[in-house]
Specification:
Layout (H helix, E strand, L loop, with lengths): L1 E2 L11 E7 L9 E6 L2 H12 L3 E6 L16 E12 L5 E18 L5 E7 L7 H22 L4 H7 L5 H11 L4 H9 L3 H53 L2 H18 L3 H16 L5 H15 L12 H11 L4 H16 L7 E5 L6 H12 L3 E5 L6 H5 L12 H9 L5 E5 L12 H9 L7 E2 L6 E2 L5 E6 L7 H6 E5 L5 H19 L8 E2 L1 H11 L6 H20 L6 E2 L2 H8 L17 E8 L2 E13 L4 E5 L3 H17 L9 H4 E7 L12 H13 L7 E3 L2 E2 L5 E2 L4 H10 L4 E5 L11 H6 L1 E5 L2 H8 L10 H15 L6
Parallel strand pairs: 2-4, 8-13, 8-14, 9-10, 10-13, 15-16, 17-21, 19-20, 21-24, 24-25
Antiparallel strand pairs: 1-5, 2-7, 3-6, 4-5, 5-6, 6-7, 11-12, 17-18, 18-20, 22-23
Helix pairs in contact: 2-6, 4-6, 7-8, 7-9, 8-9, 10-11, 10-12, 17-18, 17-19, 21-23, 23-26
The site of adenosine-5'-diphosphate (ADP) has 18 residues, from α12, α17 and α19.
């Protein structure tokens, strides 16, 4: 160990050892320890110690040079005194030196021991006047203090002591020595001989460093905050898990989410739907499991999972088999079945059919919905039914938005869930009973459902992702077509089922209704039977309908009674062959053939009407009374029927003379036309000729034939125009045991749809004019009435007889 003496100045011309420094610059006034390892440097160090302890320290230009020559080092360095050397166990020296002053190499030579010796000239610093640099110095110290504070790498107290000096040369060197900057910058400062220059350079360095430190700090702060946030979240999540576990639901929640995730994957939804479901599941996971919001969320996911996305019934394409199924389920209806089979055939050949929707149109109970069910069975698809009767709200079809409390998908999506396959037969029952109000028009939503262009992207408000209905086979039913919105009508292929004749009803009852009801009542093999006579008796006395509803109901009623017999052991009377027994079961007959109107009467004409329940008989009454020529109308008359009555009256006036009616009559007599409420016909002009016949009969005092029924529109000039619903009307005439039917000639073509059995029992009279109607319908030709007074008397007599007080 060597403790050197301290001697500031250097003798001129004396050579001292050079110690090249790799990675540091030593400034005057500075004490610094470092390790010396290079052999040549150790030799130099030892030599210096032996020669009085002076040594020249200067930085290498390139730290990587192992054995630098004088050319590899900076020429300006610091003359220093060696304060202490300690030899370490590995042969290196740890040295403590103190910088004395700047020096510049004048001359150099290599010592035989391998180190360089240099002759150094002390460089003279330009010492400024203290006043010149005072302010600059103050700024420098201020900045340096700040730098120490924020950089936190230097000890504040030690540094404050070190810079307690007024000497600018010393101060700048001390500060420069402590800056954390590259060697080149430090060397540059060392080479500045004017302290004022050094001040400026150091201030610039401090500014830049401080900026760096500030940015660093900001970034560090941000990073720290982020880490803190992540840690906090992690901590809280763990805590929630722990709490839930403590409450005994933590594991279950995790399970549930996993199950939902699996189900979502298994549902094979559309991409859009799956993304939505997973997104919702993520939200759900973040919610408290028992909250109302979570329930809403869970329901939504459940709905997405439970509607079918790809499951499909394997369709039966065998038309022969389909035909067999249709025949099994339904008697008769040959034309209807034929059209159904054609429809199924075309469906197989054409992918997107225009107007692809079948619509069964007809009165209740004619088998419309059971036909639809049979079609589903025939093609082997699932069947679901949705009754549109009374649907007024678009939301019933399309659902409510999820923001509504208790929102659900609309019926269409619910039907699809129920069906469980993407290609069911969906029956939209009673499409004519749908109405619209302020809540939006359901028919426009239905349009979207039924339109093959639109229904592949049907959107339910609740489900809120598009859902394809393109594989669904829609079938609709309606009692009437005129209340169905036009655009919907255009989408549908309408198949009319007008109703059954007595004979057909008997067959249907025997083949289908009775076996079905026996089975339903557990009477299948109990020896129960109904004779044809009894069935016909039920049809005639207990039902008055185009379809089968009441007949089926009556049969069910008998089955109930018989079931009781079986249970009570009264097996002797299970074959019902006696109409009296049937009457006992069913009570007093509800209908009787209208006998009253069997006799020919003045002013009473029998019309044929078309109603939602099929065809019906419509009795029109006309009576006269003293008055001023007014026409009053009562009963169930719509606007168009009232106009028909006016037209009939006008016809009568214009033809009065030729009909033998005195002109004056019309100004002295009021006429009154009444249509009984019993039958509720659709408003229309087809009662025209009936009203006219009743009026003419009343004025002409000639009775109308009771066994003739008629339908037709009448013009003011007495022409008869064709009408609709002829088939149903003829079936009604047949039921009512009418002998002849008067029809407009243009309706002759409609007769081909009427079953032979019906056609054969009726006489058809085709007419062009009202005159022809009258000649057929009145029991005798009109003859001129002798006198108006006589007519009035007769009317008065009639009034007294009937005792009725008619309005005027
Ligand atoms: P709609 O839908 O037209 O009101 P349904 O389909 O409900 O009538 O039919 C009523 C009942 O009549 C059902 O039990 C049905 O099986 C029976 N039915 C109707 N027409 C026939 C038929 N042609 N063959 C067999 N049963 C029939």
């Amino acid at each position: 160990m060597f403790i050197g003496g301290k001697k500031d100045s250097l003798a001129v011309g004396v050579a001292i050892p050079l110690l090249p420094l790799r990675d540091m610059v030593v400034f005057p006034h500075m004490m610094i320890p470092f390790v010396v390892g290079r052999r040549s440097s150790i030799k130099g160090l030892e030599h210096a110690t032996s020669q009085g302890g002076k040594i020249f320290l200067t930085a290498q230009r390139d730290a990587s040079v192992e054995e630098p020559t004088v050319d590899d080092i900076h020429r300006i360095g610091t003359v220093a005194t060696i304060i202490q050397t300690v030899r370490q166990s590995n042969g290196n020296y740890k040295v403590l030196v103190e910088g004395l002053h700047r020096g510049k190499i004048e001359d150099s030579s290599k010592h035989p021991d391998g180190f360089h010796e240099v002759v150094v000239r002390a460089v003279v610093e330009q010492v400024p006047e203290p006043g010149e640099v005072r302010e600059a110095l103050q700024e420098l110290t201020r900045k340096f203090e700040r730098y120490i504070k924020i950089s936190q790498t230097l000890s504040l107290d030690a540094m404050l002591a070190a810079i307690k000096t007024e000497n600018p040369a010393k101060l700048t060197d001390t500060i420069a020595a402590h800056l954390d900057v590259p060697i080149e910058q430090k060397q540059a400062i060392l080479e500045m001989l004017n302290p004022a220059d050094r001040i400026a350079a150091i201030v610039a360095i401090l500014d830049a460093e401080m900026d760096k430190v500030r940015v660093d700090k900001r970034i560090n702060n941000q990073v720290r905050k982020q880490i803190e946030k992540a840690q906090k979240e992690y901590y809280l999540n763990e805590k929630i898990k722990a709490i839930q576990k403590e409450l005994g639901r933590g594991e279950k929640g995790g399970d549930e989410y996993k199950q939902l995730r699996d189900k979502i994957a298994a549902a094979r939804m559309s991409k859009e739907a799956e993304e939505r479901a997973l997104h919702e599941l993520e939200r759900l996971e973040a919610m408290p499991p028992m909250s109302a919001e979570a329930t809403v969320s869970r329901n939504y996911i459940d709905w997405l999972i439970s509607v079918p996305w790809h499951k499909k019934s394997r369709e039966n394409k065998d038309i022969k088999r389909a035909e067999r199924v249709l025949d099994e389920d339904h008697y008769g209806l040959e034309k209807v079945k034929e059209r159904i089979l054609e429809y199924l055939a075309v469906r197989q050949l054409v992918k997107k059919m225009e107007g692809t929707i079948l619509c069964f149109l007809g009165p209740p109970g004619v088998g419309k919905s059971t036909l639809a069910r049979a079609i589903a069975r025939a093609v082997n698809r699932k069947f679901v039914r949705f009754s549109l009767g009374g649907v007024r709200d678009e939301a019933e079809i399309r659902g409510h938005r999820r923001t509504y409390i208790g929102a659900l998908p609309g019926q269409i999506i619910q039907m699809m869930k129920k069906a469980g396959t993407i290609n069911p037969v969906v029956l939209l029952d009673e499409i004519d009973k749908m109405s619209s109000d302020f809540r939006g028009d359901p028919s426009s939503a239905l349009m979207e459902v039924l339109d093959p262009e639109l229904n592949s992207e049907f959107t339910d408000h609740y489900i809120d992702v598009s859902y394809s209905l393109s594989q669904v086979m829609f079938i609709t039913t309606a009692n009437v077509i005129h209340t169905v919105p036009r655009p919907l009508q255009d989408r549908m292929e309408i198949i009319r089922i007008p109703g059954y004749t007595q004979g057909e009803k008997l067959e249907i009852a025997k083949r289908h209704l009775i076996p079905k009801q026996l089975k339903a009542h557990g009477l299948a093999r109990k020896g129960v039977s109904l004779s044809d006579e009894v069935i016909n008796f039920i049809i005639e006395k207990y039902t008055w309908e185009a379809g089968m509803r009441n007949l089926e109901r009556s049969i069910a009623k008998i089955c109930r009674k018989l079931a009781r017999f079986v249970v009570e052991g009264r097996t002797e009377s299970l074959a019902v062959t006696d109409t009296a027994l049937a009457e006992e079961f069913l009570g007093v007959p509800k209908f009787r053939k209208p006998d009253l109107e069997r006799s020919n009467e003045v002013g009473l004409a029998k019309g044929l009407a078309w109603t939602e329940l099929g065809g019906d008989i419509l009795n029109v009454e006309a009576t006269l009374m003293r008055g001023k020529g007014k026409l009053s109308l009562t009963g169930k008359l719509g606007e168009v029927m009232q106009e028909s009555a006016q037209a009939a009256m006008s016809y009568l006036r214009s033809r009065g003379a030729s009909l033998g009616v005195d002109r004056k009559v019309f100004s002295r007599i009021d006429s009154h036309v009444h249509v009984p409420e019993g039958a509720i016909p659709k408003d229309g002009p087809s009662a025209g000729i009936t009203i006219a016949a009743a009026l003419v009969s009343a004025f002409g005092r000639v009775p109308v034939r009771a066994d003739v029924a008629m339908t037709g529109e009448v013009t003011l000039r007495g022409k008869v125009l064709p009408v609709g619903g002829v088939k149903e009307k003829i079936l009604a005439a047949h039921r009512a045991d009418v002998r002849a039917v008067i029809l407009p000639r243009d309706n002759k073509k409609d007769l081909k749809d009427v079953p032979d059995e019906v056609r054969e029992g009726l006489q058809f009279i085709f007419v062009d004019t009202m005159d022809e109607v009258l000649s057929e319908a009145l029991v005798e030709p009109l003859s001129p009435l002798p006198d108006i007074e006589e007519l009035l008397d007769e009317i008065a007599r009639e009034d007294r007889v009937s005792g009725s007080e008619l309005p005027n």
